Task: structure prediction
Amino acid sequence: MKSGNFAANLHLVGFKRNDPFARRLRRLKDLNKRKNVLYQGMANAARPMRDAMEAAAPVKTGVLSQSFRIRKLKKTPQYVFGIRVGAVSGPRVVSPGMLDNAKIDKYDEGDVFNMAGWRDHFAELGTVRHGPTPHIAPAIQKNLGRYQKEVRKEIYKAIARLDSKKK
Result:
């Protein structure tokens, strides 16, 4: 894409330069739209990985299993963006869906609890008092192979949605 003295190049790691996928993505001239489409595609493709981490997390109160998120990476070089899949910490409100599926106990609807992302490495690797409960590494190993194909599919879908909105 070129506009006067300004030129922007899009380099997707893992794709060949003449790949029609990259060509289609370059059609999005607005960099913010392009960035949002990429984030949306990466996040949608990472959902099975997040769900596998959540399902395999050790359950005592269910707080750790409710702490898995897909987040944008914040500190990256300019025009480099990515996502992080894993447990996070911070306050959260108990929603009815959490109680219906018995994912979390000892709380009532509307209660505030702290997500337990800071404890995740203890569960994954173990401590002196308890053994490891691997749930992060197996989820990554299981889902990483198909992630690139899924990212491609999800970005195609997002571009198609944008194209249909233009018409």
